Amino acid sequence: MVxxxxxxxxxxxMTEGTIVRWHKQEGDEVKHGEVIAEIETTKVTxxxxxxxxxxxxxxVVPEGQTVPVGExxxxxxxxxxxxxxxxxxxxxxxxxxxKPVPRPAEVGVGVKGEAAPRIAASPVARQIAREQGVxxxxxxxxxxxxxxxxxxxxxxxxxxxxxVPRPAPVPAVAAPAAAPHxxxxxxxxxxxxxQTIARRMAESKRVAPHFFVTxxxxxxxxxxxxxxxxxxxxxxxxxxxxxxxxKAAAKTLLEFPEVNASFAEGKIxxxxxxxIGIAVALDEGLVTPVISDCDKKPLSQIAQxxxxxxxxxxxxxxxxxxxxxxxxxxSNLGMFDVxxxxxxxxxxxxxxxxxxxxxxxxxVVDGEVKVADRMKVTLSADHRVLDGAVAARFLxxxxxxxxxPLHLVS
Length: 410
Hints:
By secondary structure, the protein is of the alpha+beta class.
């Protein structure tokens, strides 16, 4: 059976991706679910798995090529199976036809006036170099055929500022002396992930009117239940506090579907699936892989999937399905000894939950001072979609699920 492999869409704002590496070559046997390629987006590098079993009959998009989401990048079929339109799906780099006239940006001019060949570089590497003012002629490429790839440019940018070669400026006038009060500093380029975060978070704060609601949650019973369950579970299924938060949020979203929503094109979209994103901090920035259909999964399955998601995120091996569109996000900084914070909404979602540390604090219970485990959570909400009363009731119910945690295993 003929199976077309297409450029996957990972995240609502992804429009294109770049083929970084093919793990299989034309003529190789492939099995369903086997990794056949790596692609790069503005967020991360992810693996693409085969949609079916058979033979990799045609690589349509070569390494280093950028194509839109949904574009066919390869074809898998039986070894002798006829593939309609096979010739039209020839690799992009070798399609026959008249050679295009180079645009001015694609050529240079030598001392004798002849056009100089274009430097071989991936589109992503070229964009980073342009944004950071790096001359590609000063970089040695490590990609296929000596092509300059993203990692080559980033490696150059990580050097000390004095070591980063930049094109020599042609002074038009004498530069003024530095102001006497200027503080010595260095400038660091933004990673691709950091650029995406900067753009999306600025857009979120500019477009979505945020408001914040905080609640103090008793966690003694939840921690006791977690300890009891983990004593019986295998290592891969052991439960973390974040896993309990995900399950509690999923059950709460079932009762408050208006929170499981977004504002789009002047209307409110209420989603019929509960897909919860987990914010994962990487050295180069933040990514938010998603656990889908959390309301339908037991706590132990959520725990297992969350561990696998975090591991893939930290090793740069996230898969397209890990970026299933999310409907709600949880950002937990409790492991960093953060008592309380507010988070910026992850667009296009209507809300995000910021979670602080579980701390032992004195509380008054029935007129007596006792020691208890407490945790502060803050809901950031889009006021176009939610009002304060709805957000407050949402947190009230979320708090009940954690303070009476047997609800989470029912």
